[in-house]
Amino acid sequence: RRGPGGGGRPMDDENLTFETSAGVEVVGSFDAMGIREDLLRGIYGYGFEKPSAIQQRAVIPIITGRDVIAQAQSGTGKTSMISLSVCQVIETNVHEVQALILSPTRELATQTERVMQAVGNFMSVSVHACVGGKSIGEDIRKLESGVHVVSGTPGRVCDMIKRRTLRTRAIKLLVLDEADEMLSRGFKDQIYDVYRYLPPELQVRL
């Protein structure tokens, strides 16, 4: 069975302690989360059987539109939590970027792209990793062809927005993955630059 973080073995939830805000419900199965049928097929097809502890607590608040801060160690299912939550809120008939995921490294942004493509396999979700070190021309072609989700690093995403290649008017969810690491790496100004271009009624997940 695949580990819920997109790689490695899942951590033993039994040994973890969780603090949650008032009103956060623990939901023990994917079926009970109200997730769309085509996404459920992708989740089970990817090898997930049961949500990890962080998924049991964070998926419902995210897909119901709440701003969420979810902190957990590596290997607890954060990447797949982001992927399935984002896929749930995407309208695939709208061919514009609706969710933006910022990560501190190219590797993490690319891993998120891969996991999202896998769990969103049956719903035709279009995801693109917008990271430094790749061809700008490729980014421009992909973005202009229409994608639903961009997973990227702050510098390249900011560049694509300023070039008006990444259009932000339909973005409804911003995810800052490993936000503390992004700040410690000096991405604060770039994140703020990106945020300034996003719609005011934005949902944010850290």
Automatic annotation (TrEMBL):
It catalyses: ATP + H2O = ADP + phosphate + H(+). PROSITE patterns: DEAD_ATP_HELICASE (PS00039), HELICASE_ATP_BIND_1 (PS51192), Q_MOTIF (PS51195). Its EC number is 3.6.4.13. GO terms for molecular function: ATP binding; hydrolase activity; RNA binding; RNA helicase activity. Residues 59-206 form the Helicase ATP-binding domain. Residues 28-56 form the DEAD-box RNA helicase Q domain. This is RNA helicase. It comes from Aegilops tauschii subsp. strangulata (Goatgrass).
